[in-house]
Design goal:
alpha/beta, binds adenosine-5'-diphosphate, ATP-binding, transport, nucleotide-binding
């Protein structure tokens, strides 16, 4: 069973003349890293936000596993999302930032500590757990934002241009880190970028959007072979 199904999912913004995302049909397999790519305004963020429950769906449906989530609020979708401006809480340490959602959810301290430590190990953040975000580099902060998302063990992980605030060199290394982290966790991931190189180097498959319409979905390898 696919992990995520867009079934003719459509978003027409109020006052819009044509849908920002038009009857999107797309299945994302369990554990897959799918990249949504295309120029600015093609509907990438809208597609992601519909899956997250942050944007109304005006036609069609969205399923996670066999659950129809089309009209469920974000908190009931078992999804975590990392944005480009990964706003960490400045007054909290890295560990507190990463454990915060679990604390709110009432998870006990020992369990939070164990999950935070495990995520920190995977993300190479162990030595920074007691620091405040301002004492970290941009790449480290980005990893804290990812850690904060994965400690909740979501079923689906969403990233919207997570590297756009990093400089070019850091972007390349963080790209590799995110891809290998995703493979280690095996978590179904939808990743939005306008950068074709990023899409082709990171994705198991790449979905190309243009003017709200899905143009092509294929593996990077097949895309190179038949451009
Ligand atoms: P992308 O992420 O590919 O840049 P978006 O999903 O943000 O594209 O936008 C797709 C289309 O929807 C664009 O034409 C954009 O102007 C329009 N759009 C996005 N957000 C809104 C909104 N809140 N209200 C009206 N139109 C919007
Ligand atoms: P509070 O006492 O207000 O809950 P804590 O200082 O205990 O705040 O930290 C908040 C959360 O972050 C706690 O749930 C704790 O388990 C976790 N935490 C704090 N420091 C560490 C650390 N060094 N390693 C792993 N987890 C930590």
């Amino acid at each position: 069973m696919p992990s995520v199904t867009y079934d003719k999912a459509t978003r027409l913004y109020p006052g819009g003349t044509k849908p920002a995302v038009d009857a999107l049909d797309l299945q994302i397999e369990d554990g897959e890293f799918l990249v949504l790519v295309g120029p600015s305004g093609c509907g990438k963020s809208t597609s992601l936000r519909m899956l997250a429950g942050l944007e109304d769906v005006n036609g069609g449906a969205i399923r996670i596993g066999d659950r129809d989530v089309t009209h469920l609020p974000p908190k009931d979708r078992n999804i975590a999302m990392v944005f480009q401006n990964y706003a960490l809480y400045p007054h909290m340490t890295v560990a507190e930032n990463m454990g915060f959602a679990l604390k709110i959810a009432g998870v006990n301290k020992a369990e939070i500590r164990a999950k935070v430590e495990e995520a920190a190990k995977i993300l190479d953040l162990t030595q920074y757990l007691d620091r405040k975000p301002k004492a970290l580099s941009g790449g480290q902060r980005q990893r804290v934002a990812m850690g904060r998302a994965i400690v909740r063990e979501p079923q689906v992980f969403l990233m919207d241009e997570p590297l756009s605030n990093l400089d070019a060199k850091l972007r390349v290394s963080t790209r590799t880190q995110i891809a290998s982290l995703q493979r280690r966790l095996g978590i179904t991931t939808v990743y939005v970028t306008h950068d074709q190189v990023e899409a082709l180097t990171m994705g198991d498959r790449v979905a190309v959007l243009k003017d709200g319409l899905l143009q092509q979905v294929d593996t990077p390898r097949n895309m190179y072979d038949k451009p």
